[in-house]
Design goal:
With about 180 residues, this protein is of the alpha+beta class. It is built from six helices and seven strands, in the order βββααβαβαββαα. The strands form three sheets. A three-stranded antiparallel beta sheet has the order 1-2-3. Helix 3 (about 85-105) links the parallel strand 4 (about 75-80) and strand 5. The chain is globular. The N and C termini lie far apart (about 40 Å).
């Protein structure tokens, strides 16, 4: 669990309680309860009752990073693994995903709304939907460097592009004017 410390959870505790049920049921004969505490001097409680969205996202990322390194998966897809986090923690999560792609030699695909995560990818695609009278169609477009700067700037500032957002997007991508 040491990998959770850089993600803002230095005091995390996780334990798995397994009890065998007297009778076999549709879910098997084992009862499994994950107990969790993210903070000092807070007793562990059932994970499902106390974990926040951001804590769950960080926990899942670390678990998936450990498993994917062991199993040597060729590709791993994260669909909004960054839910409930932002800023410095999002950047740390992006670095873990980057390490997975370079250190584990696997393709990492991350669907995200956070510019800190999108900026560390080698490729950037924009996914969007269009509606017609009778259907909705999903589209995916690979972005050029200029389009990538604009997309990150939109992620930072919304629909109106400001010079500050563009400068921030360029800084995230390490692009100098």
């Amino acid at each position: 669990w040491r990998r959770l410390a850089p993600l803002g959870m230095p005091n995390v505790q996780l334990m798995v309680d397994m009890k065998q049920q007297p009778h076999f049921s549709a879910s098997g004969c084992d009862q499994v309860v994950y107990r969790f505490s993210a903070n000092k001097n807070v007793p562990m409680q059932p994970l499902s009752q106390v974990v926040s969205g951001g804590e769950m996202a960080r926990l899942m990322l670390v678990l998936k990073a450990i498993v994917s390194a062991t199993v040597k998966l060729p590709t791993i897809i994260f669909d909004e693994i960054d839910t409930g986090v932002s800023g410095h923690i999002a950047e740390k999560m992006a670095q873990i995903m980057k390490e997975m792609s370079t250190g584990n030699h696997q393709q990492v695909i991350s669907i995200t709304h956070l510019p800190q995560i999108a900026a560390l990818g080698e490729q950037h695609y924009r996914v969007y939907k269009t509606d017609s009278e009778d259907s909705t169609t999903s589209h995916i477009v690979q972005l050029t460097t200029k389009e990538r700067v604009e997309e990150l700037a939109h992620m930072l500032s919304g629909s109106t592009l400001s010079e500050a957002a563009i400068a921030n997007a360029k800084a995230l991508l390490n692009i100098e004017d």
